[in-house]
# Entry
Amino acid sequence: MYTLLIADDEQLERDAIDLLVTKSSLALHTIKVRNGREAVEIVQSTKVDIALLDIRMPGLSGIEAARRIAEIAPDCRVVFLTAWNTFDFAQEAIRLGAKDYLVKPASASEVVSLLTRLVSEIGKAAENTATRGVEDIRKILKQFNRSFFASLKYGMVPAEAMHAYFALEGIHEEQGLALIFDGIDDLELLPLLERCVQSTQFKACYFPSVDRISVLLFSSKAEVLSAKFNPEEILVSCPLCHIGIGRPFDSLEDIPRALRQASQAYFLAIRNNKVLVGFDGLESQRFFASESEIEQNERELVEAVMDTRLPDARRLAHRIQDMLAFTCGEDRQLALDRTYEMVLVVTRTIRGKISHFSHEPVYKGSLMELERYFMDFLDTACTVVGMDRKDKYVRLFKEVDDYMNAQYAQPISLEHMAEFANLSPSYFSKLFRDYIGSSFTDHLTEIRMRVAKQMIRTGMKIQEVSALTGFSDYSYFSRVFRNTVGLSPREFQQEHKIPT
# Structure
C-alpha cells in the first residue's frame, strides 16, 4: 500500500480525487491537506510516495512545497495541479523533478491513468534521476501551451490568467487580430512575422501545432492594426500557404470569438483554394456542408491515420470541425451533439482497424474537451500504427507486461494471456521470452515478489501480503518467497527490522 498526499485549498477538489482513488483498485492510502505548509508537515512525519500539489495555495505555494518535499523525501513523486501554464512554472517544475501535471479540470480517467502509471513506476526498478535537459523543458512547455491555447480558444481561461500569461510574453495590449496559417513551418514564420511588424508597435504571440499555426497580433488600437498589418511579405515568401483572418478583437475576453472566425476563414481559404480569406463578408455567404462531404472527409481522416500521416489527419479533423461549426451556426448544443457523434464514429472505426488498441472512451463534456480528446486520440493512433509497422509484437507485449504489473493480484495464466493476444499458448510462450526476456511464470513471480517485499516493508501482515499478491495458499507463497528472495517472509521482515 502506497501513500498519496492531496494538497489543495479547495475541498471539492480534494474530495473528488479521494473518491476516485477509493473507487479504483489502486493500492493507495490518501491523506488530504489544505495547503503547502500542511503538506510539508505530513511529509516530515509520514512516508509519502505520491504528492498531488495545487500550484496556487494560500501561504506556501505548490512550487515552494515541492521544493521542501524534494529536500525531505527525494523519492516522493510530485504531480502539480494547475489551471494554466507559465514558462517560469514549467522550468521550475522540471528543476524540482516533477513527474507530471494535471490541468484543471482533469477528467476522472486522466487522474486514474496518471496514478496507475506512477504506482507501476514505484513498483519497478529505481528510475534514473539524472538531470533532464533543455529538450525536456521544451517538451513540457509545449504541452502546457497546447492546453492553454485549447482553453483560450473555447473561452475557458479566466481574465486574470489571460492577463498574467500575456504579461509574461511582454504583451499588455488587449486589442488585436487572430490569424491561422498553414503551409509554413513555425521557425520560418517567426522571422517573417517579426519583419512584418518591425516598423509598428504590434506584438505577436503564436501557438504552433502539427497542422496549423495560430497567431495573435496585439495593438493598443485594433483598427490601426487592421489598416497597417500587411501579410504580403509572408505571401511572397510562402506562396503555397493559406491564411484565415478573424475580425479584430477589442479585449482579451473577445479572443475566442476572433479565433473561431479565423478558423472558419482559414477553412474556406483551403476549401476554395485561396491564399488569404478574411471573415468579413462570410456571414452573408452562409456555408452548409453536405452529409456526403462530411462523410468523405471522415473516410480520408481514417485513411490518413492508417497511413501515419498525422499532419493530414489533424488538418482533416479541424476541417470537419469547421464544417460542423458553419452548419450549426450559433447553436452550441447542436455543435456539441454533432461533434460528439463525429468523434464517436471516427474513433470507433479506427479502433476496429488497429488490433489491441486501447484508449479511454470518449466523454461528451464540452467542445474543448472533445477536441482535446480527439487530437490526443489521433496522435496516439498514428504512433501505434507506426509502431506496428516496424514490429507488431513490441506494443502487444508491452501491453501484456503492463497488464501483469497492474493485475498481479488476480489469477493470471499463460493460457488467459495467450487468448488475449490471439495467439496459441506455445507461440505466445516463445514470443513472451523473446520480448520480455524471461519465461511467463518467472516474470509473473518476479513482479509478485517485488510487490510483496515492498508491502512487507510498509509493515503489512504477511498473510495479507500473500493474498494481495495473488496467492491463495500462504504456505505456497512462503516457499516461492524463500526460493526467490533467499529468505522466508518472516526472516525478511526481521532482517529489515520491521515491527510485526
Remarks:
- The chain has 22 helices and ten strands.
- The first helix runs from residue 11 to 23.
